[in-house]
TSPO protein
Amino acid sequence: QGRMWAYTVGFTVLPHVGGFLGWFINRKEIPVWYEKLKKPSWCPSCKIFPVAWTVLYTGMGYASYLVWNDLGGCSSKAVVPLGLYGAQLALNWAWPPFFFGSHNMKMALIDILCLDGLAIGTVCSWYRINKVAALLMVPYLGWLAMATCLTIRIWKDNPEAKPGKSE
């Protein structure tokens, strides 16, 4: 029983690790660079992002535990559903360094579009295994839809300087 508690906590906390590192490494770019970008009126306040990501990472982490547990741990049946989850989580963690770290909005856009596909694939694969786990991912899919639209809009509204041209 004690070991299952540790697994539950471990799976639930895991997504927060990359999310926290992404914030920590790139946090200085928010007031210096991000705040100066042209953003649409529907862009959430910077105060909303940590709250939203805490809720979303907690839900997806716990959902991954449910799937892992239902499949009997790291079995051959877990390769695809947890592989999709791991891949989408890696792309989720890669977005801040592309966007905030290198200011590469085009790469951030490519990243989030691939992330969207993997997140949808994760939810579809999980639905047959554990419906609660799949439903726990629905708010994340909604947030990703908004984040994708926001990334597209910021990319379009803030043209990057072309190499070799001065402003």
